[in-house]
Structures are given as structure tokens and as C-alpha cells.
Amino acid sequence: MSKSEKSRETEHSESRKLPIYQHKDKLVQAVKENTFLIVTGETGSGKTTQLPQYLFKAGLCRDGRIGVTQPRRVAAITVAQRVSHEMGVRLGEEVGYQVRFDDCSTKDTMIKYMTDGCLLREILADPSLSQYSIVVLDEAHERSLNTDVLLGLLKKTLSKRSRGRKPPFKVVVMSATLETEKLSSFYENCPVFTIPGRTYPVKEKFCNLIGPKDKDSSVYVKEVVKVTLDVHTNEAAGHILVFLTGQSEIEKACDLLFDKAEILDYRYDVHDRTVEGLLILPLYGSMPTDQQRQIFQPAPKGVRKCVVATNIAATSLTIDGIRYIVDSGFVKQLNHNSNVGLDILEVVPISKSEAQQRAGRAGRTSAGKCFRIYSKDFWDTCMPEYTIPEIQRTSLTSVILTLKCLGIHDVIRFPYLDCPEERFILTALKQLYQYDAIDRRGDVTRLGRLMVEFPLPPNLTRALLKAAALGCEDVMLPVAAMLSVENIFIRPGKPEGQKEAEIRHKEIAACAGSSNDFLLLLCVFEKCRSSDNPSAWCKEHWIHWRAVKSAFSVETQLREILLRLKQNDFPHETFEGSRSELLRQCLCLGYFTNVARRYIGKSFCTMDGHGSTVLIHPSSCLFGQELHLDWIIFHDVLVTSRVYVRTVCPIRYEWVQDLLPKLHEIDVYELSSVAREEVTDEEMAQWEKKEAAKRQAATEDAAKK
Ligand code: CDP
Ligand code: MG
């Protein structure tokens, strides 16, 4: 028997030990008997990896594949790897995956793991999902925006279609124990299949290192490292799982841990002599695939694994042998910030239910311990009871456009599991109107149908389509690609590296005239691509080669979509001017909603009606040149004690002059009628009249003043 076959054999017998195995036949039966089924069970019971295999082996996908959605791309990839290995097939054949910008599946793939966003795109192309016999919506308790929309779509459109289909189309929703009753009543009171699991008690301890006032990431990273080392030196054997917020904090913590673990003297410092070393492993969403695999490899004898992860390790992925949890108490979350009027990736305290979920990871194989770096006071005053579903806290613009393109006009009374606030829906409609993706009736325009084809945020898509109409997509495709991958600039944690990196980054910025962060991205992309040895070039300039490499592949994929769209009737315009000007003007079409004008000193004031005061982030190549700038647009916002804008581009007022009125022209409440029902021509005419009168009154008012 070869080595890999042997490891497969052991894994195979391992999978028989999972709690789900005893319920195999009953589960298959339940899926056969029901159109909708909810499956619930403790994390690690085998739902994600085993159930699709059971259904496959029971012949349930003879007439179409099984699609399994995941809210997170790492989970989709690692789980597909695992399952293909267990089944002894090559990844990308019978078992495959698809995530944004990375498709590892063929038309013959029978079990396809994919992000929820990818399935949503497939529904756009084929509303009845004719290739599928079963869709499994996994991790439904996470309540990601796309999963929530899929829940509604499968209920609304597919339940009708599935009745007529032979064999009928089925939906399985998998979820941790929360939310199952709600899900069942949402799906016609369908049965809930519970996989009983065994868990061991977890002792919970507040370490009191973080109080209600500490929100700075440098504080909690340090404290997390301290507690982790304490656990390592004082506690008996067993792996450690550390919950942190994001890639940069994780890398920082791993660096610190590595330095400190190196100087430990195992003869004296470490209490349990059976652990001779600490294996530090980062785990986050955009991690390279080969590194992901390491997380699940058993540690060598006498070595303690320490996995430093984002929330992904809370439910999406199970790492065996975890006995200790170190919980930072924070999570990075996309929130709509109504003060600034933008979606912002913020570090916020986790909810109490999330904290319990994190702690539970320590009690899977034996009794465990959870060390919370924060205080009881922090728990009481800063942490909400439950996590609010994403659909109620982020921008709905892309989702509403998708629904509209699927012919769902009444986006307010769509069957949401939890309704978003009406004003968020209206804001999304307003933005779509501003990008010319829908018209005043709420109908999708030709541009809107083109926009929905791109797996990009609407503002970037709008800018890209403008450039494409001008025949100059070569300037915008790389920019869109670079903004779609993880951060490309290496910013080392140690002071020596920092200086050197800064100098190198300044050099490249100088090539781009140090005048525009978007142009700088284009510049890095092009320099790297034309270099004879791109990876060496990146190393020399402190650029993440891996990120640029994925940007190359993203650019190719976006270009393919564009080429396909250009074969049909595509808008065509002309432009005269320099390349930098062209880039900036195209960006204006997408980012005029993120426009700001210089205000007092180095600060800027946004123009979207919120009038927030913002500063240019030190990472921008325009940092320090504020006094020479007047109008700017920006890609995103970072909120600490101040509001910073990152990836900035100076513009001229004339370029946005005609667009800015769009920010105020349409009253969101007027849009509520178009969100609810089809508007007749007559109603439309009346409305136009009313709007015209309003504008007239406003102009007269202004004239009087
Ligand atoms: O979905 P659920 O949380 O119920 O469990 P699962 O993800 O199917 O995991 C079942 C088992 O497979 C766990 O013990 C994991 O540690 C293991 N697994 C693995 O070793 N490698 C992976 N890439 C995924 C899961
Ligand atoms: Mg799972």
C-alpha cells in the first residue's frame, strides 16, 4: 500500500468515528423524503465533509450534481481537498470547488463545494439550477448576506419549479444548533434532523487584560500573545486555538510568538515536559492553499500546535485536538456605518453567543479551557447577546441588483429570513440608480445587466465599464484586479524592515508620480508583469508576489468576462486626454459617491450628505500632500479614533460636477414605491411631474438666497 493510500485508509476509518456516521442511512432517507431538510449538529460532527458523500454514494445525484455552499472561500477549498482525498479522486474531477476567481471544477464534478456568492451567480445564468439535483446551504447560522439571499431565492423561485421537476430538486440547510426552528418554519415547517454530538465541559476564565475602553489592535495582539505563551508554558499537552481579527494581526501575533517561543528553555520554563515545541500556524481567509493544508496535518510527537485564526475556526473548519482557546474578544466585521454612510470593515467586540461558540471549540475531544483576554466588565458592557445577520448591517447594492436581474421587482417583500431595514434597501436602490444600473421605475438598465456579470463591487464595475466603453480597459482591468486581492504592500512589523520597505514603496510611488494610489497599483501591476523575474522584483520592492500573482489571474478572468460582453451590443464612447486623466475620469463614475473636498487643514469633508470629516491614511502616496489637494475620491475607509480614507485619487471638480446632483436628486422614499410594485406609465408621468416641480422650487429657493 502506498503512503497516500495508507493515510486515506486511516482517514477513512477516522470518518467512521464521526458522530454523523451512525445516522448515515436515516439521513439519506430523510433527504429522499423531503424537498427541504434542516440538518443540525455540533461543529466537527461531520456534516460538511460526510453528508455530501453519503448522498453521492446513495445515488442521489444521478440526475444532477450536489452543490454545497460555504460562506468562506478557505472553507470551500480545504473541505473539497479533504473530501476528494477521502474518496480517492483527483480534486477538480468528481469532487471540486469554485470560489470567486478560482474555479476548480468541471461539468462532470458531482460534489461541488462553492462559496454562496458563486451559487448566486450561477442562479443568474440558470435560474432553475438545472445542473443540480441537491443544493446544500452550509453554515446557515453564520447568516452571511449571500446565504440569506439564497435561502429566500430557493424558497421563492425554486420551490415552485422543483415540484414539477423529476427527480425533484432538493434543498438541505445545515446549521449549528442556533436558528434551526426559525429555518424550519421558514421552509414550510420542514423536518429538522439533529445529529447528537458529545461535548466535554470547558472551563472559562477572564484574564482581565482588556477592559471596556481598549479597542486598539496593537493592545489586544500583545495581550493575546502573552496569554498564549502562558498557556503553552503552564498547561498540560493539547493544542491551542487563538482567535484574532484579521491577516495583519494574525501575522503580527505569529511573529511575536515565534520570537518568544524560540527563547523558551524547555528544561525550566515549560511545565509539561511532554511538549517540546510550539508549532505556530496562521489561518485566515486569503491564505495560500498549500499553507492551509498544514493546519490539518497532525503535529509531530511532543509538539503543541498553536493555530492563530480568524473567526473561520469558530464553525467553518474544525481542527482536531484543540484543548485550549485564547479569545481576543474581537472580530473584523463589515458594517454599514451610518455616520459615514459607507460599508466599513471594523474591529468590533464579538457577541456573547459567538464567545460561547469559540469556547466550545476546546471541548470536542476532552475537557478544555478557554482563556478570555478581556474582563467580565467588557463582557457585560461591550458584547451584544447575538451577532446581527449581515443582511441587516451591510450594503445591499449588489444583492438588490442581482434580485432585480432575476426579475424580482418587489425587493421589499422578498422572503427574507430576517428583513433588512427598509432604508437599507432604499439606499441600495438609490445607489443603483446613481450608477445608472436601474432607471426611475426601478427596472434594470442595459448597463445594469452588464454590471451584474462582474464579481466586483458596483462602483468598481461602473468605472470598469466606462473604461471599456472608451476602449481603454487596459488601464482599469489591472486596477480592479489589484483591488480584488489582499493587500499587496508588505509592511513588516520590525523597525529595520519597516524603513527599507518604506523607501522601496516610495520609489515605486515616484514612478507613478506619487500622485494617485490607483495609478500606483496599475504601475506595480505593469512593472511586475514586464519584469523578467517578477517574484524577485516583488521581493526587492517589498511587494507580496502571491497577491500580485493572483491579481494577474483575476485580471485575465475579468478580461474574459468583458470580451464575452463586448461580443454583443456594448456601449461605445470616445475620449481625448492623457492616460492618467482617463483613469481618473473613469474612476469618478464609480466613486463619485466617495468624493471629498478639502476642508480645514489636512482634513477633507465628504459630499454625500453626511459631510463627514476624513483624513488621508499614512499608507497613501498622497499622505503629506494634503495642502496641495482640493477634490479627491477614495476606495475605502478605515475607522480608528479617526476616520481615514485609503487608496485615494485627486480629481477635478468638473469631472464630478454633473454627477454630484445625483447624490441628492432622488428621494429614497420615492423609491419605495418602485421597490414594491411595477409602476404604470401614468404613475410614472405623475411622479416625473412632481419631481420636476420639486427641482423648480429648489432652484427658485436657491436663487432667492
Ligand atoms: O461540518 P462539521 O462541522 O459537522 O464537520 P466537518 O467539517 O465535516 O469535519 C469533520 C472532521 O473532519 C473533523 O474532525 C475535522 O477535523 C476533519 N477535517 C479535516 O481533517 N480536514 C479538513 N480539511 C476538513 C475537516
Ligand atoms: Mg461544517
UniProtKB/TrEMBL annotation:
This is Probable ATP-dependent RNA helicase DHX40. The gene is LOC109083698. Residues 685-705 are annotated as: Disordered. CDD domains: DEXHc_DHX40, SF2_C_RHA. It catalyses: ATP + H2O = ADP + phosphate + H(+). InterPro entries: DEAD-box_helicase_OB_fold, DEAD/DEAH_box_helicase_dom, DNA/RNA_helicase_DEAH_CS, HA2_WH, Helicase-assoc_dom, Helicase_ATP-bd, Helicase_C-like, P-loop_NTPase. Residues 28-196 form the Helicase ATP-binding domain. It is an enzyme of class 3 (hydrolase). Pfam families: DEAD, HA2_C, Helicase_C, OB_NTP_bind, WHD_HA2. Coiled coil: none annotated. Residues 686-705 have a biased composition (Basic and acidic residues). The keyword Nucleotide-binding applies. Its EC number is 3.6.4.13. Residues 223-407 form the Helicase C-terminal domain. Belongs to the DEAD box helicase family. DEAH subfamily. Probable ATP-dependent RNA helicase. PROSITE patterns: DEAH_ATP_HELICASE (PS00690), HELICASE_ATP_BIND_1 (PS51192), HELICASE_CTER (PS51194). Keywords: ATP-binding, Helicase, Hydrolase, Nucleotide-binding. GO terms for molecular function: 3'-5' RNA helicase activity; ATP binding; hydrolase activity; RNA binding.
